[in-house]
Design goal:
This protein is of the alpha/beta class and 353 residues long. The protein folds into 3 domains: 82 residues, no CATH class; 44 residues, no CATH class; 193 residues, no CATH class. It has 16 helices and 5 strands. Strands 1-5-4-3-2 form a 5-stranded mixed sheet, sandwiched between helices. Helix 1 packs across helix 3 and helix 13 packs antiparallel against helix 15.
Length: 353
């Protein structure tokens, strides 16, 4: 998975200036290291690098002034972005470890073979290794989550130590999450919202974008390429956290687009972020920027909040936890934020809402 996407390498034009920059950089850090970290993103093979080096040494500039000017103009436009790719390769961050919540058809077949105890071909093992599912001799943490995602809900809950509470709401009918939310609004003194993963969208929308703007970058990948990742992390201070919450009324004049059942107000958002607290939100920020994509999904269905309390609730009627939930629920519980599974009824004794 690329950390930084740009119009270069396989999709860009390989002018003589591009070739010289790539050849010089590969020689600087070592050709073997260059390919181990960049794969074929900038050049196809050592043989192609040698071919480019030969072209450069035998270079005769084009007779056409138009071609020469066009080549110089193209390279001058993309040179800064090429240098950013070089920075990522130096840091070995051109690719990030896979955190995908699903397996491709091919990966699934190989994973099934592994779980059956069958010996994998070298090519098959390398596919799982490249996707951060397998090391040379055992499943990675990421791979173990894929394994747990196949287990029953009972095993999943036992592994995660998540509490289950029965609620008197019938499973029949549409939108059980909404009916559980109605029940909780009647039986607690909390404001309840059905946000799911849009909680993360709201957090990143209101807290991340101002920091990117301050540094003049487009996002995390840009901060790494420009050597600003430490500066970005240093900006997420307690003062920044509190001042952002204090300015949410102003920020909500241009609200973040959310695709969820509940539409939170600025007051709702302020209550949620204050209840979660700075330490929780900073940990979330750091995870997002150390491994982009790892916290984007897997948030519980419902969130309840008041001035003193916050509560996460996931609505289930027997279906299993998703991969994202298996990854995110421990993050929530380890930070002492209450979370439980609301198990809805399967009979006629449920309360009619």
């Amino acid at each position: 998975m690329f950390l930084h996407e740009m119009f270069l390498g396989g999709t860009g034009r390989k002018t003589i200036y591009y070739k010289k920059a790539v050849v010089d950089f590969a020689n600087e850090i070592g050709v073997d290291i260059f390919f181990s970290r960049s794969n074929q993103y900038l050049a196809k093979s050592p043989a192609e690098l040698r071919k480019w080096d030969k072209e450069i040494k035998e270079l005769i500039l084009p007779n056409s002034r138009t071609r020469l000017i066009d080549s110089i103009t193209w390279f001058n436009f993309y040179e800064g972005r090429l240098r950013e790719v070089f920075t990522l390769i130096r840091k070995n961050k051109l690719y990030q470890p896979s955190c995908r919540a699903w397996l491709s058809t091919t990966e699934k077949l190989i994973f099934d073979k592994l779980l059956r105890g069958e010996k994998l071909l070298t090519k098959e093992a390398n596919i799982l290794i490249s996707e951060n599912i397998l090391t040379r001799d055992k499943l990675t943490k990421h791979g173990k989550l894929h394994l747990l995602s196949r287990k029953s809900l009972t095993i999943q809950l036992s592994t995660l130590s998540v509490e289950v509470r029965s609620v008197p709401v019938a499973w029949a009918g549409p939108r059980p999450e909404f009916r559980v939310m109605q029940y909780l609004e009647k039986t607690t003194d909390m404001r309840w919202l059905w946000l799911e993963n849009e909680l993360h969208s709201m957090f990143s929308g209101y807290f991340y974008q101002p920091l990117y703007k301050t540094l003049g970058i487009s996002g995390h990948a840009d901060s790494v390429a420009k050597n600003l990742e430490d500066s970005l992390k240093e900006l997420f201070t307690l003062q920044y956290f509190n001042s952002t919450i204090d300015r949410l009324d102003e920020a909500f004049l241009h609200p973040v687009f959310l695709n969820c059942f509940s539409v939170p107000s600025a007051e709702d958002a302020a209550l949620i972020f204050r209840a979660l607290g700075y330490d929780f939100c900073r940990d979330l920020f750091l995870d997002d920027h150390d491994t982009p994509g790892v916290r984007h999904m897997g948030w519980p269905d419902l969130i309840g909040v008041n001035e003193n309390t916050i509560q996460f609730v996931e609505v289930k009627r027997g279906d299993k936890l998703t991969f994202g939930q298996l990854r995110n629920f421990p993050f929530i519980l380890e930070r002492a934020v209450p979370l439980y599974i609301a198990k809805i009824q399967n009979g006629q004794d449920a309360e009619a809402l």
